[in-house]
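Exercise 3.2. Students should predict the tertiary structure of the chain below and write it as structure tokens, then compare their answer with the key that follows.

Predict this chain's 3D structure.
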Amino acid sequence: MSLKGVELQIAIPKTFDAGKMVEQHQQNTINQQIHANEALKKELDRKQTTVNETDSTDAITDEEERQGDAENPSMLAKKKKKVPEAPKAQHPFKGNFIDFSG
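Answer key:
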């Protein structure tokens, strides 16, 4: 396939434009990968510095009461009697059947 002079005048500038577009696309892809990697590192750092599980405060206070009131068991019994057990609240829709058909 041979190109004439007029065809070369059109083909060569378009080749340069296409090359620039390909290079920009590659740079965009590389930048996106770098940003995704940085976001992943930040997420991992955040997960490593946050507390995942905590001890129940009830368990801690029960242990402290047992250790502190070991000498006087009647005080421990009085404390337990004073605290009335609160009824558990029902969830508004969990465990209930809701008919969405309509």
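Discussion points: The two ends are 69 Å apart (CA to CA). The longest helix spans residues 5-49.
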